[in-house]
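Q: I have 292 residues here and want to know how they pack in 3D. Can you give me a structure?
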Amino acid sequence: MAYKLLALDLDGTVLSGSLAISPRVRAAVAAAQAQGVHVTIATGRMFGATVPFAQQLGIDGPLICFQGALIRDTRDGAVWYHQPTPARLAAEAIEQLIARDIFVIAYIDERLWIARPRPELDLYLSWHPERPEVVVDPNLPQAIVHARIARLLSQGENAVADDLAGTAVANPPTKLLFVADSPVVEREVARLAAHFAGRLEVVRSHTLFGELTAPDVNKGAALAQLAARLGIAREEVIAIGDHENDLPMIEWAGLGLAMANGIPAAHAAADAVVPHVAEDGVAWAIERYILA
């Protein structure tokens, strides 16, 4: 099979714990592109946080970000797809998490919105050398809902809209992320998935992270959209990942690969398991399935 599209998760797949990309992985990605293979990144990170890693890999084109809620092109900034989280549901989830003393981030317009600073923010930012802008709003759930109402009413009830628009929030969140100890994340992912069943997607993206997006948003659905737009068949797509949030694209791709350091569920879903991220598993996969 001649593969034409390769989708790479970042953390735990391309990136080691030190956020480094090995020379072997960079060389393999370059060689695949030289053979005409489209290479993209599929990550939970924001677009602005993904671009620096795309540049290191020499990837120039559409990237899948926010767990599949956004597909955006690095060449001109064009948005190919964007599905934000419904404002009222996002506000409800934020209220529930805050009530349980769990730190939560709302990603709005490439900025991190939080209700108040906590040590979990520093932990989260340790994975983000680009240092994204952080906005603090103690009334974050209300601000998100009011911004939505203001936009709806501004088309015909400008005075009312002006009264409600007392916030800098312009758009609903693209996704939510909460940070907690592993047992708490496991518990809350299960609880929120049951509570928002059919209304929000809830997934664990890291031992310490849980995430919420709009219904049917996931890396697999986004990869299917991207492949269709590029005119590439499912059978011609490779996807490589390591965690729960990668399962949809591993399962959808013609060849789904899991990292040796990945979770057991990723191994079970994959067509094959490739070497550990510390052993350049992505490069091994490219050499084995594309360059060979």
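Q: Anything worth noting?
A: Confidence is low (pLDDT under 50) at residues 159-167. The chain has two domains: 5-82+217-291, 87-213.
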